[in-house]
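Sorry, I am new here, but would you mind making up a protein's amino acid sequence and the tokens describing how it folds?
***
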Amino acid sequence: MQSVDLTAANCRGASFKGAGMRNAILTYAVLEGVDLDSADLSHATGTRAIFSVANMNATNLSGATLQNADMSQANMPGAQLLATDLSSATLAGANLQGADLSGAILEYAYLGETCLTEAILVNTRLRGSDLRHVLLQNANLAGKDLTGVNFTEADLSGSDMSKAILTGTVFTNANVANALIPSSMYGMVTMWGKGCGGVAADDA
């Protein structure tokens, strides 16, 4: 199935479990509820494709272009999303526990209520993203550009945000207990956040 072209195809509920779909063209495809367990979609193009409630356990999406894709409530634990372009995508309620998002572009994406526990976020771009209600406990966000990110009611407990850029970042009712934040934002975050016991300021 290498380089398969499914442009605007309706594949709702289909099984592609373990399929090799590297470089697949999935633009506008409807993949709602599909089984992509362990499939290889690396370098696929899926702009505005619909992957809602899909099973994407350990799916390889590295290098894929998924701008404006709908991945709402997709089950993606352990997925490989290295350098994946998810800008302006919707991942509301998705399970990305343990997923590798190294170098992924999530700018202006909507990730409300997404589980990112134990996700790898090295060089992940999050500027302008909506992370309301996300689970980001113990996340390494140090030095990241978090300009305009909305962390309303997110769980950021134990996270490292030292030297992060927090211009216009929203922490309304976020749980920042035991988080490490830039000293310039210490007063604001402890004022806005909840569960602030143990919040520490870095020396930036």
Helices lie at 186-192. The CA atoms of residues 81 and 101 lie 5 Å apart. Residues 190-201 have pLDDT under 50 and may be disordered.
